[in-house]
Amino acid sequence: MTDAENLKCGLVSAEVNETFTEAVLRLQDESRLCFCHRVGERWAKAVGPDGREQAGGRAAQLLATMTIFRLNARHLEIEFGDGSRWEMPSKAVANRDPAAAHGDSPLAGTESPVPGSSASPASGRAT
């Protein structure tokens, strides 16, 4: 199974804010992949389930395999080290999500990154 297929199989929901600068992918194990891409700021991080944010879970496993991501009004696109790619149109996600349609941040409550994991501003990849 490719990394993109692993993400697709584990994805429960996706949220994008109205300016298409923040996104959260929620996975079956309740972990989250969080993305931010705005002028002067670009990062991705894994957050474990509520109450166990430091755990990382499936999100941390996927983050470790990411090589780059793009987040803009057109889409959220993730490329993985195995050469696979996953993409979701941003507008379709924002239109389905009531919080995103109102401009609420999908990153609320995700301020603590996984220990030992940081994001590279240039690539959006964990280091």
Question: Explain this structure to me?
Answer:
This protein is of the alpha+beta class and 127 residues long. The chain has one domain. It is built from 4 helices and 7 strands, in the order αββββαβββαα. The protein has helices at 3-10, 57-65, 90-96, 98-101, and strands spanning 11-16, 22-27, 32-38, 41-47, 66-71, 75-80, 85-89. A 4-stranded antiparallel sheet has the order 1-2-3-4. A hairpin with a 4-residue loop joins strand 2 (22-27) and strand 3. The chain is globular and about 30 Å long. The model is unreliable at 95-127 (pLDDT under 50).
CA-CA gap between termini: 24 Å
Number of strands: 7
What is the string of helix and strand elements? HEEEEHEEEHH
How is the biggest beta sheet arranged?
Answer: 4 strands, antiparallel
- Helix coverage percent: 10-25%
- List unreliable stretches of 5+ residues: 95-127
| Overall domain count | 1
In percent terms, what proportion of residues is strand?
Answer: 25-35%
* Inertia-based shape: globular
What count of helical segments does DSSP give?
A: 4
Alpha-carbon Rg, integer: 13 Å
